[in-house]
Specification:
By secondary structure, the protein is mainly α. It has one domain. The protein is 73% helix and 0% strand. The protein is built from 13 helices and no strands. Helix 3 packs across helix 8, helix 5 packs parallel to helix 9 and helix 12 packs antiparallel against helix 13. The longest helix has 36 residues. The chain is globular and about 60 Å long. It starts with 5 loop residues before the first helix and ends in a 6-residue tail after the last helix. 38% of the residues are buried.
């Protein structure tokens, strides 16, 4: 048997090697990598399961009656209201039609809020009503994967609603798409749908503690109409209120949609897309923290069953 070298003895004393041989540091890194792979695999499985079966739990929002209202009734009614209001405000003058069409584009994008915000915000409240929230909370499943997966169907619905709204904008309100960059407009619709889901999840977290999150969702809907550049430019707002506008992904989506319809290329829209993505991820992170915080408060106060 050979004696240990001085180098091996020093490494063993420092905990880098075990006396029986082998590198502890390497094994520790390997174990960490294995744990990370397992966590990512579980995250993916929970997310995929929520995507495939999450719709089954959204009875109120997953029905043909609700789809008809969201696609064929709400968008044109909302756009018509602000279109006529803008014409009345400017007394039918030469700039009246220009401002009216400005509001039409903004409200076409904003119409996705009924799916991206309302339907997603109602997830926890509906679970309370159905009596399934307690079963979800006690599972060891990752909360982020669970709720993002359940909300993902509304990304599709939000995009469909917005596409329908732009069809109304063209054929009913005379919006010209002759110079539009449809690739940029398509990216705008999909990206804004995804990023607005993060706001829906943020509001949904409040539903863990309150009886329902729909009150907050209604307040948020009117807030976006006021400060997101939907009906008038953000620059017209007071300076102290403009940072609130840029904290909402809808603001970037509305601006990108107007620019894409005006003919801006995808490369020109890149900075807006990046800002919207960063903002949406930040909102999602805040929503996750609120979800964990309100979950703890709801457990302590017994409000998980309160509806």
């Amino acid at each position: 048997m050979t004696l240990e070298s001085e180098q091996e003895k020093k490494e063993r004393e420092q905990g880098l090697k075990s006396p029986l041989g082998g590198d502890r540091g390497t094994r520790a890194v390997s174990d960490d990598n294995e744990t990370l792979r397992q966590k990512l695999s579980m995250f993916y499985r929970v997310f995929l399961g929520s995507v495939l079966f999450g719709r089954k739990g959204t009875i109120l929002w997953d029905s043909w009656e609700m789809w008809i209202m969201q696609i064929f009734i709400t968008p044109p009614a909302e756009m018509a209201f602000f279109f006529l209001l803008a014409i009345a405000v400017y007394h039918g003058g030469p700039t009246a039609l220009q401002y009216a069409q400005y509001t039409v584009i903004g409200n076409a994008v904003q119409s996705m809020s009924f799916a991206a915000v309302f339907a997603v915000a109602n997830i926890t409240s509906q679970d309370k009503w159905q009596g399934t929230l307690q079963n979800l909370i006690v599972t060891p499943a990752n909360r982020m994967a669970l709720f993002i997966g359940r909300a993902s169907f509304q990304i599709f619905m939000s995009a469909i609603i917005t596409v329908a709204a732009f069809i109304y904008a063209h054929y009913v309100f005379g919006i010209s798409f002759g110079h539009a960059d449809f690739v940029g407009l398509g990216i705008t619709i999909v990206l804004t749908s995804v990023m607005m889901i993060s706001f829906g999840l943020l509001i949904s977290s409040i539903g863990l503690f309150m009886r329902t999150a729909m009150i907050v969702a209604n307040i948020f809907l009117f807030l976006t109409m006021l400060v997101s550049g939907v009906n008038f430019p953000v620059q017209d707002l007071p300076l102290w209120l403009q940072p609130v506008s840029w904290a909402i992904p809808m603001t970037y989506g509305v601006q990108a949609a107007r620019d894409a319809i005006s003919g801006y290329s995808v490369m020109s829209l890149g900075p807006i897309f990046l800002q919207e993505f960063i903002d949406g991820v930040a909102v999602l992170f805040v929503g996750y923290l609120l979800l964990k915080g309100f979950e703890r408060l709801a457990r302590r106060s017994g409000r998980l069953e309160e509806y």
